Amino acid sequence: MDKNGHYVQGVAANADGTFTIPGTLTAMRVDQFAFSDTGLETTEASLVLNLDAGAAFDSAGTARELYTVQIVDSDGELQAATLNFRAGDHTQAPPVDTLNAWTVSVTTGNAGDTVTSTATLLTFAGDGSLTSPTSYTVGVTWANGATSSVPLDISNLTQFAGDFTVTSYDQNGIPASDLSHITFDTNGHVVGNFQSGFDQALYKLPLATFPNPNGLEMANGNVFRVSGLSGAATQREPGGDGVALLAVNTHELSNVDLADEFTKMIQTQTIYNASATAFRTADEMSVVARDLKR
After folding, report:
1. Alpha-carbon distance values, 233 to 207, 209, 274 (Å)
2. How far is CA 7 from the centre of its chain?
């Protein structure tokens, strides 16, 4: 809050992490435990990796490439699921040594988990690009009763001769955790940095514009209030519609020329002294004239 006790207000994030501007303004709570019981479930993810085109087919499926991904379940807990990549078509029984084909499936490390994903065949073109499918759903019912059904974008998987190489993995979930500290960005986001190591935009500070800003009514504490002359406030999105950006981690600087102001102050003081002296002299002359008349 400011020195007058007024809360800085912002628009809270939607359930999917986005913001609606204009939105409902609320006092922003950013203490350590404000978001301990909340998390953002993983609803989408993407994976970029390369599978070795020279990998040998194994009918038993024991020769595989593994990569463990982290996802946030429906209860806001961080979970780990392992993607298993096996050369050939292992969706059939018995498996078939199929050219430019891999099979992907999901396993977890907890016996209480139930994997709902099915083994899926990945097919690649002769140039190493993936032809189908472009998405694979990672589905698990976890031992804690929570669930996950995450569409994983795999459209950028490749099959080139060389090592199994993971380039990137991204997911949009945020696990429930205590708030560590907050930061701001130029677009007005109040970003929470959590003890889990994840960051999440918690609030967004909108800016207000008025049809006639000069008509705002000045109040105590160097604040202004809406008046009939100013018109109603319109919420605008910093950085989103060209209104303005916020200057974070800065102090407001004075736009006053100190040398000019001091010069004006000295001139005013000199004029005041001269006027006071003239007034005093005139008063003394009036007293002398009165005394002479007597």
Report:
1. 9, 6, 49
2. 21
